[in-house]
Amino acid sequence: MNLTLYKQMMKVHIKGIMNYAIGSAFYMILMVWIYPSIADNAKSLNDLMKAMPAGVSKAFGLESGFNSFDSYISGEFYGLLLLLIMTIFCIMLSTQLIAKLVDQGSMAYLLSTPTTRAKIAITQAAVLVTGSFIILLITTISGFIGYYLFMEDTSVFRAMTFIQLNLGAFFLFFAVGGISFFISSLVNDEKRALGIAGSIAFGFFSLNLLGKISGKIEWLKNISIYTLYNPSEIVSGQADIIQSFIILGIIGLAAFIMAVLVFKKRDLPL
Questions:
Q1: What is the DSSP letter of 60?
Q2: Residue 259: inside a domain, yes or no?
């Protein structure tokens, strides 16, 4: 890795990273703030959930209802909102780090410096992983702050479960980021890279969603890496988090390695 390039790229992209981080933190604190009023009407909301098709509740992680804060936050935030925020982030930043530089001709300037292609690719990958880590770290911290600011009964807060939710999200988007980065390393055109990476990432997301909605097409979710992150199972203690983390880590690492190898050997436009 080239430390000088890493510092420069972090300076270039830190504003965008922080925008995602602040947005995620805002929604997290908002969710914590409104939970007391949700808890007061938990019975009515649970009855409403029971009246809905079971597949819909399962798809959005609401099958556990609103009986606890963990169940509420796993469905309302980690089951949908955070997934969308982080998916968009991984697609956008991975494209900017490689494909955009190639498309605009800026990559030629980097390659003219006394550093190898492999080091450039590894450095850009490190920027992407660091960005994901920063966003999820700030999201985690904002959750702790929100708990102690807005919740009178802090005994409902299970710190380890909350950390597992965020750690699981990090491993998921390590894998999603790796796949998006691999696509960015393959394609010269920025818009094409965005389209392909977006189609793959949101395709996985949609397959997982559709597989949960109907038992007839439940097999679809087995094709998606998003299936390896199930917030409702994490809070209920049913998830095999170690196995999921290992699989997602391997997928992400393999994708990043392939991206470096491809970028190292491919022809680039001058």
A1: T
A2: yes
In a domain, 79, yes or no: yes
Domain boundaries, position 203: 3-265
Give residue 158's pLDDT.
Answer: 77
Residues 100-140 have pLDDT tens digits of 888 887 777 777 777 888 899 999 999 999 999 999 999 99
**Using DSSP, how many helices (H) and how many strands (E) does the chain show?**
12, 0
Greater confidence (249 vs 159) lies with 249
- Residue 242 Ramachandran class (φ > 0 left, ψ -120 to 50 alpha, else beta): alpha
In 71-142 the beta strands, taken as DSSP E runs, fall at: none
The tens digit of pLDDT for each residue in 164-196 reads 999 999 999 999 999 999 999 998 888 999 999
What per-residue confidence (pLDDT) applies to 214? 64
Q: Which two tokens stand for residue 170?
A: 């990090």
In a domain, 126, yes or no: yes
Residue 270 forms part of a structural domain: no
Give the C-alpha distances (Å, rounded to integers) separating 173 from 32, 36, 116. 23, 30, 27
Distance of CA 113 to the CA centre of its chain: 33
| CB distance 31 to 152 below 8 Å | no
Number of domains in the chain: 1
CB proximity list for 100: less than 8 A, separation 6 or greater:
106, 190, 193
CA distance readout (Å), 86 to 53, 97, 143, 255: 28, 16, 17, 18
The C-alpha atoms of residue 62 and residue 55 are separated, in whole angstroms, by 10
DSSP annotation of 78 reads I
Report the Cα 92 to chain-centroid distance in Å.
12
The pTM is what?
0.86
Let me know if 243 is exposed, middle or buried by CB neighbors in 10 A (0-12, 13-18, 19+): exposed
